[in-house]
Amino acid sequence: MLFNSIHFALFFIIVTPFYFLLPHRFRWILLLSASCYFYMVFVPVYILILGFTIVIDYMAGLFLEKTEGRRRKYWLIASLIANIGVLAVFKYYNFLNTNLSELLTSFGYRNSIPNLSILLPIGLSFHTFQAMSYTIEVYRGNQKAEHHFGIYALYVMFYPQLVAGPIERPQNLLHQFYEKHKFDYDRVAEGLKLMLWGLFLKLVIADRLAIYVNIAYNHVGQHSGKTFALATIFFAFQIYCDFAGYSNIAIGAAKVMGFKLMTNFKRPYFSHSISEFWSRWHISLSTWFKDYLYISLGGNRVSVPRWYLNLFIVFTISGLWHGANWTYIVWGAINGFYLVFAIVTRKLRKKMTRFFRIDGFEQLNNGIQIMTTFVLACFAWIFFRANNVSEGINILNTIIGFNGPLFIDKTALTYGIFGIIFVMITEFLQEYHIGGSLPLKTGNWLIEHLVYSMLLLMIVTIGVLDGGQFIYFQF
Amino acid sequence: MVKRKNHTLRFSGNALLFLFICVFLDQFTGRVLRHYYFTTTSGLNYQTTYSMDSTNAEVLIMGSSRAKHHYIPSLIWTRLHTTCYNTGRDGNFLLYNYALLKTIVKRYKPGIIILDINPEEMFYGQWSYDGLSVLLPYCKKNWDEIHDVIEMKGSFEKLKLQSAVYPFNSCLLSIVSDHFINLSKDTLNGYVPYYGHEKEMKFKDEENKLIEPTIDSCKIIALNNFTSICCRSGIKLYIVRSPKYSDEDVTKPQELITSIAMKNHAEFLNFGNSPEFIRNTSLFKDRVHLNDEGAKVLTNLIIDKIQQDTNTGK
After folding, report:
1. What residues contact A19, with CB distance under 8 A and at least 6 apart?
2. Which residues are CB-contacts of A321 (< 8 A; sequence separation ≥ 6)?
3. Which of A44, A46, A372, B176 has its Cα between 20 and 30 A from that of B99?
């Protein structure tokens, strides 16, 4: 079920009042049933995959708690193999097999293993990672095993964050299912406002920008450098508004019912460096990789070359997490390179700042840093959006050439530029003046009513109401 | 308990107020948009409104952008001495034209309809349903005629249409532009010429290929109904597959169109593999659209066919 559909609006309007009307002890049943329905709207049979990993991880959790010594490790490995196995089969098998075929062909051999003709279960990487975080935390002793099967299943399947995160940790979410959430006006209102803001980001900004981006990126070779440069900037905002929009709806929907999900975005395009960018962008995934992979590899408590390698590995794998395509791997590797490069050149950059005497002008310095970070992020986004690596390189060459006329689609350009300016102004105010997760705060309830009804009006007037699914669903 | 009740009451009160503001804004904005939408005298929206509400041309051209840019009403007027209007609309295909036909036939019955159809239109694709949004402003007035097509867009269209703004979603810029910026009158009776041609003609296989396309059953029904309405109303229907820069294999949908046309006594004219057009760069704007020169050639060929049929009493 898409958050930007009438189907979801009706689902939410039915489920939420029932949630508050039901006695606390029955609420998990309602939420679990609603979450199953939410998931089964996509491809019903795929609930079996979820069921399989839920049973394995639930049992692994119980055994991890009961057993000691080496056997604990075996249970952890069994759980990880089940989860990564599902990912490998459904998400990466065809990619690996196709690459193997190409490799064998280049040596004159033939790969007779066929590809699988299966659809990727929606949000597979998200709920798999959330499930893995449970068994890892139980193994590490940071979380007690969940004995209630229904509550554990709900931890994996909680509908607001089931298909595109935020990827929760058991310490943050599990206990909340046992807490009694009362109807609280301020919390419910804030949750609804967050949902509306998320819808605005998705329908008015992301989907509008997508029209221009798709025209350019799906017809490589037909557009100029200027068009690709603009399309890349548009894509940077498209993917941000798409994913942050989704996260806002997810966090808002959960908040209405009294659940606090972790923040996933903190105005990433106001970052002063790539490392700061990654502490503001898709925070639940970045922290997952930090907690469970980077630290497991030794983090920065190793030799300097190994530290660099660790960073590079983590970001390349995080690229692969996004999809079975070399474009994502290249995107991840570029980000890994940025971080290593930033560490290596830290002293040199400080010297240069002093040499050019920019350090005295704090605002100018900040502006340069924010712009540089944005340009670097955009450079990496080219490969994230390109249909394949060679097209990515073509686009990059075209942008560098910067020849030819700009492709003009008046509607897409007008709405796109309006959307970017609007979101940047609200985020600027949030970043430097208001703070918090909710934009458009005025302090006056009547003005806020007007502001949010205007937002709704803008969604209906200029939003793309026939738009597609959220980009991150495919991951 | 009292505190909780207060929260619920406060929420209900505020929700009602919010709803009231939203309904007021929606109705007010919707009415403003409706007024400006229907009082414009230029642009694509005007041409659709004119096609639905005002035209009484004897010959009607219907279809997508390939109709819009391929048939010249003035040429038909000059050679056949009969009025003609081009109702074609960019990005709108068979389903749109089926709805349009029903609204027109409610008002009057043209003598001849030329329906330009690209056989690929018969394949299933979300694009053909998304484009139906252009019919939404006309729902209020022509609900009986177009509701079945509108409901193909999605199950909740009737519910969405309770909003006064929704029918004009994404129309704001075109309304402003047609009213205050682009004021050129529709002097060519709906025809919009293309001039010149692109530097490089892209072939289909260089673009995204359709993945195992399937024929859309809704479109089969629409084409059947379209042809039978014309047949019942005594309208001579020519279904035309106008030329493309390169020929494509569309055997399946083409056979289907031919059989539906035959069943309802319509003519199917296939210019898809016509040698005078294939790879003739001077006649094409791009791979799928003729330029003004090409449109003249095609329109003359159609006129020849109509004259021939008239002379033989067909």
Report:
1. A27, A30, A31, A257
2. A125, A129, A285, A328, A475
3. B176
* Interatomic CA distance for residues A145 and A138, integer angstroms: 6
Residue in B21, B156, B166 closest to A453 by CB: B21
Q: Does A463 sit within 8 Å of B21, measured CB to CB?
A: no
- Span A209-213, mean pLDDT? 91
* Statement: the pTM of the whole predicted model exceeds 0.90: no
Determine the Cα–Cα distance for residues B15 and B111; give it in Å rounded to an integer: 56
pLDDT of residue B38: 92
Chain centre to alpha carbon of residue A83: 19
* pLDDT over 90 (residue A110): no
| pLDDT level of residue B206 (50, 70, 90 thresholds) | very low
pLDDT band at B312 (very low <50, low <70, confident <90, very high): confident
Rounded to whole angstroms, the Cα distance separating B60 from B68 reads 11
Give ∠ CA A461-A466-A472 in degrees, rounded to 5. 110
How are beta strands B112-116 and B59-62 bridged, if at all? parallel
With a CB cutoff of 8 Å and minimum separation 6, the contacts of A18 are: A30
Mean pLDDT of A416-424: 92
Say what the ipTM of the complex is: 0.78
Q: Region A182-198: what's the mean pLDDT?
A: 91
Q: Which of A136, A137, A138, A134 is nearest to A154 (CA)?
A: A134
- Tens digits of residue pLDDT in B263-272: 988 889 988 8
d(CA A312, CA A343): 12
Phi, psi of B20 (to 5 degrees): -60, -45
**For testing contact with chain B, the best of A181, A207, A456, A461 (most B CBs within 10 A):** A461
Residues of B in contact with A189 (CB under 8 A): 11, 14
Phi first, then psi, for residue A94 (nearest 5°) are -60, -35
- The answer to whether B54 and B104 have CB atoms below 8 angstroms apart is no
| Cβ-based contacts under 8 A for chains A and B | 74
